[in-house]
Amino acid sequence: MREAVVSFFRNMRRPRMERRLPALFASVFMMGVCVAVLDKLDMGTDPCTVLNLGLSDTLGVPFGTFQLAINTLMLMIVLRFDLSRIGAGTLANMAGVGYVAEFFMWLLNQPTALQNLSLAARCAIFVPTMLVFLVAVSFYVAVDMGVAPYDALPQIIARRCPRVSFRAVRMAWDIAALAIGWLLGSTVGIATVITGFFLGPMIAYISRKVEPFFN
């Protein structure tokens, strides 16, 4: 535990913290908002959210609380094998995305203009929402203040299984999450496909563009 605390505070001593922290919390907030909108549009979400939505609905646990709980369990494993993955970004993602998404899911379920949308209207909302989500995740990674436990675990597995590429491990990890979530009733749709195929390249591209701002 002492090593975890030391690692956490070492991670906080980074250049341009006055820029990193606002960007971190803004990206976490926007990820939560986008998850809620994508869920409302019923066009799928990222693999981690598909899994957590399916499990939280099945168990009858609020989404934010369940996401925090499952991330905490994953964090225990990460702490055991790789403390360097942990930082303020880890904790912000664990607690922030789920509860922000839960609040906006509740808000969007109130009688609003988003009820009974046509396919054209859903697509018109989907495109900017997906773009904002991709940019938000990219900034979250670019600030380099720790990763979500869901993302850290396949990195740890790949490092301990050198004969298997990280891409193969990550694909298996995401497919397993999707399969479980889908079997439990979550929607797997176009947003799931986009995050699966384009999230990595988008993160790499945006990160290269914005990293000088944080250094």
SSE diagram, text form:
Blueprint: H1 2-12, H2 17-41, H3 47-59, H4 63-81, H5 88-108, H6 119-142, H7 149-160, H8 166-183, H9 190-210
Helix pairs in contact: 2-5, 2-6, 3-4, 3-8, 4-5, 4-7, 6-9, 7-8
What are the key terms here?
215 residues, 76% helix, globular, mainly alpha, single chain
Our Rg estimate from Cα atoms comes to 17 Å
Q: Main β-sheet, in a few words?
A: none
Q: Into which percent range does the helicity of residues fall?
A: over 70%
Give the tally of structural domains: 1
Helix count from the secondary structure assignment: 9
Distance between the termini: 29 Å
Count of distinct strands: 0
- Tertiary shape: globular
Mean pLDDT: 85
Q: What structural category do the secondary elements indicate?
A: mainly alpha
Poorly predicted spans: none
As a percent range, the share of strand residues is: under 5%
Taken in chain order, the helices and strands follow as HHHHHHHHH
Summarize the structure.
By secondary structure, the protein is mainly α.
What does this entry look like structurally?
- With 215 residues, the protein is mostly helical.
- It has one domain.
- Helix content is 76%, strand content 0%.
- It contains nine helices and no strands.
- It has helices spanning 2-12, 17-41, 47-59, 63-81, 88-108, 119-142, 149-160, 166-183, 190-210.
- It is globular, with a radius of gyration of 17 Å.
- The two termini are 29 Å apart.
